[in-house]
Amino acid sequence: MTIDLTPEQVLAGAGVLLALALVWRAGRARARKAAEKARAGARVVSLVGRVGLMAAAFVGVQWLVIANPGNTTLLIVVLALPDLLAAYVLTRMLTVTSLDTTTRRSDRR
């Protein structure tokens, strides 16, 4: 069994294969971008949930201590601890610790 193909048919077949490869690659890139957006959205929702849970825990403990007075030291610790944590987080968030630029050896010339 022999197949006789003209050069035009071979070029057409190669063109079709190239077009399919490009469409597949573009679809993969689009899917990757969509997945990254979905992950970023899930991170935000997860972060909001964790922050809400911790805030509820802090409020609950503070409410228990304030509702049952008697120990001034415990009251001061319970009211000051969230302030210390918030100050630490804000300080870390607003402090620049490094530059986010990357340089390659060829760029240093």
Automatic annotation (TrEMBL):
Membrane-crossing segments per the record: 6-24, 44-66, 72-90
Transmembrane helix is among the record's keywords: yes
Domain of life: Bacteria
Entry keywords, A to Z: Membrane, Transmembrane, Transmembrane helix
Protein name listed in UniProt: Hydrogenase-4 membrane subunit HyfE
